[in-house]
Give the backbone structure.
Amino acid sequence: MDDLLIIGNNVVLIQECISKLKVTFKIIDLGLLHYYLSIQVYQYKNLTYLNQSKYISDILQNFRMDECKLVQIPITPRITLSLSYNSQLVDAIAYKQLIGSLLYLTISRLDIIFSMNLMAHLMQKLYVEHFNVFKQILRHVAGTTDLALKYDKFSSFFLLGFSYSNYGGDRDDRKSTSTYVSSIGLGAISWISKK
């Protein structure tokens, strides 16, 4: 049994597609989308919201951070992290699971994408200092579970872009990190953060 998601702006064409599929396949129409790939979808007459609050709750429980102290920002401004410290290494498996979980969260959470890009480059050697930064990201996410991507059917159709670069900000290789977000109206449509 497989799931199929049909998206479009023409209800008549969607229903026609479903009817044609029913001729060949046994299908059940479950109606409007509510939850898909750990993304909660809230659909109203003219608005759609995408949120991952349940996924965030699961991450916080898995890493025993569900009752943590909350912080306003995901990473300390102008923080410098390195691949070499004189401290203890942490469990690589748990660290990589946390990175993967938080990277998946960037599907709907633009506020942590820069922080996660920075941290993902430090996977070679995993020190306690790195894990403490991840704890701060988790504390930020815990306090902002209600954030969502909003798409308005009637918002103005204008392209908006935002970019940020951290020129030579990596202490180890002196490479820069660049981030951008593009949106149509007020709904983000693409984003990236890369070294």
Remarks:
- The CA atoms of residues 8 and 193 lie 29 Å apart.
- The chain has a mean pLDDT of 83.
- Residues 49-156 form one domain.
- Strands lie at 35-36, 39-43, 47-51, 149-152, 159-166, 177-184, 187-194.
